[in-house]
Amino acid sequence: MQQLISFIQKYKYLLFFIILQFIAISLTISNNSFHKSKFLNSTNIISGGLYEKSSNISDYFNLRGQNEILVKENIFLRNRLAKTQIKKETQIDIKKIDSVGHIQKYTYTFAKIIKNEYSKPFNYLLIDKGSAEGINKEMAVFNSKGIIGITEKITNNYTRIQSILNKNSKISASIKNGSNYFGPLVWNGKDYNTVQLTDIPRQANVKVGDTIITSGRSTIFPEGILIGSVLKVKNEKSTDNEISIRLFNDMSNLRYVSIVKNLHKIELKNLEDE
Amino acid sequence: MNKIIYYTFIGFILVFLQVFILNKILFYGYINPYLYIAFVFFFPIRENRFFFLFVAFLLGLIVDIFSDSGGIHIFSILTIAYLRLFFLKIYFRKTPIDFPFFNLQKEPFGKIFNFTITLTIIHHLILFSLANFSFENFSNVLLNTFYSSIFTLILFFIGNYIFIKKQ
Question: Which of A23, A44, A164, A257 has the fewest CB atoms below 10 angstroms from its CB?
């Protein structure tokens, strides 16, 4: 007993140090495993609120750029609207409009990014809306240029998004050339402008410059949201058929995002589980 | 005692400077200074080290909460906080009797430089290795450590020169 006490007396700082280090390492491990980061994150009321204040100030510096993006998106949507109106007018005789049979599949809402990261191997974003505005786990986040990530941790007023620039991120993507090949989109943690598309079969005809879109095979992302263009295709015969993709989005310069809610998600999940 | 409260207060100011300004520099997309570790360099040395280790833990915790990084900042700042005494003994050749009168500013520049560069590199190496969390891209970790250490040290010495009056 005497020896034990003298041992603790002698190494008290080392023991205290080891206890604190143990807390740190367990926090790190729990943060790096997907869907388990319970303790520490910036969605809480203090850090979330402070980030919101600081983003309110920095908003003014890129108003001009954001306005340009908005105008472009408006024009794009107006063009689409005009096209559908033409269709409607020409098809009105053939197609019977049935308001009961029409079921909406997705709803969209918008939010502002109040904290952006892109330089680390595991990046997370923070937006200023939470469960009070109907945001749930595993909803898709994107903007007019392309996909951004998936909602992950939600509090009342803030939501943490797992960016596509996160080594844990896996999104089903396909090639926009009529073929139905698809594979998971991952990030190797090196350059924030390029991501990697893996597991595309070798017979798929992929060329540099092809557009990559979401495949719509998961319950999270709707089909056809832009991702990026093919930058490099490996030609040698290897098992890992990795394709480098340059993102359309500049991930270091994001402000407003759309969030998609899949209204059929529970139905689809139930069907898969059976 | 007053001195300790004063330095703790400065430590918290450094952390908020780190979180809201320095974390957004990202020179060339990834080079970033971590100036808040300056707290470990100039905190007074006392016989009882529990308070010092605890404040270091707290500062790391705040930086971690704001940057969503689990516990990597806690781990790395605690390591250098614990190793500080060992390096003080090596570089400045002090015995425990000298500790209450020790003042970093009164030491020659060469010794301060060796001391800060060792602690900074240890801190950054642990930080980036844990942030990477795998053995892939290890060359990236080393490059990041190298460039960020240079950035941190430059900022530290400029800040030291501007804010601390020479007696």
Answer: A44
- Residue B20 forms contact with A (CB below 8 Å): yes
What span, in angstroms and rounded, lies between the C-alpha atoms of B129 and B73? 11
pTM (two decimals): 0.73
Which of A17, A51, A192 shows the shortest C-beta gap to B53?
A: A17
Nearest to A121 among B53, B74, B132 (CB): B132
- The reported pLDDT for the residue numbered A101 is 46
Note the pLDDT of residue A94.
46
Of A24, A124, A252, the CB nearest to B71: A24
CA dihedral A71, A73, A75, A77 (to 10 degrees): -150
Q: State the pLDDT confidence band at B166, using cuts at 50, 70 and 90.
A: low
The band of B82, judged by pLDDT with boundaries at 50, 70 and 90, is very high
Cα–Cα distance measured from residue B163 to residue B159, given in angstroms and rounded to the nearest whole number: 6
Element (H, E) at B80: helix B72-92
CA torsion through residues A70, A73, A78, A79, sign: positive
Q: B159, B149, B93, B142: which is closest to B118 by C-alpha?
A: B149
What is the C-alpha separation between A149 and A164, in angstroms, rounded? 5
Phi and psi for A183 in degrees, rounded to 5?
-165, 165
Q: What residue of A is the nearest CA neighbor of B77?
A: A21
What is the mean pLDDT for each group of 10 consecutive residues in chain A (274 residues)? 87 90 86 58 75 82 82 82 63 49 71 87 89 87 90 89 89 84 87 88 83 85 87 74 88 86 82 82
Greater confidence (A178 vs B130) lies with B130
What residues of chain A lie within 8 A of the CB of B17, using their CB? none
**Number of neighbouring beta carbons within 10 Å of residue A61:** 8
Residue in B with minimal Cα distance to A251: B29
Nearest to B36 by CA among B20, B54, B51, B50: B20
Would you call A122 and B131 a contact, using CB atoms and an 8 Å cutoff? yes
